[in-house]
From TrEMBL:
Classification via SUPFAM superfamilies: 4Fe-4S ferredoxins
Residue numbers spanned by region Disordered: 84-112
The protein's role, per its UniProt record: Ferredoxins are iron-sulfur proteins that transfer electrons in a wide variety of metabolic reactions.
Cofactor(s) for this UniProt protein: [3Fe-4S] cluster; [4Fe-4S] cluster
Keywords: 3Fe-4S, 4Fe-4S, Electron transport, Iron, Iron-sulfur, Metal-binding, Repeat, Transport
UniProt feature coiled coil, ranges: none
Top-level taxon in the UniProt lineage: Bacteria
Native species: Paracoccus solventivorans
Domain 4Fe-4S ferredoxin-type: 1-30, 31-60
Protein name: Ferredoxin
Pfam family name, one: Fer4
Amino acid sequence: MTYVVTDNCIMCKYTDCVEVCPVDCFYEGENTLVIHPDECIDCGVCEPECPADAIRPDTEPDMEAWVEFNRTYSEQWPVITRKKDPLPTAEEMDGVTGKLDKYFSPNPGEGD
């Protein structure tokens, strides 16, 4: 099992989760985060820390595509290990559906 970031994170990018990760498996994109599924140790401490409820276990239905999404971008983006301010759009975009198709940016973030 692994945990993955879903589209709820896009345009919010809260980073409360990265601060508690014991193995530093979060990677930062321009407007979202991902978890490297091969580095995640399945501890689950990140899931309750996410204000946008964007982190899910891969055992939930229909998570296969999110595992591959997280794998793809974690291999392209820089690691992030410290908390940063969320995006200015975080509050208004929290809970908006269909963000992957409408707002996702494949560009890397700054990382640490």
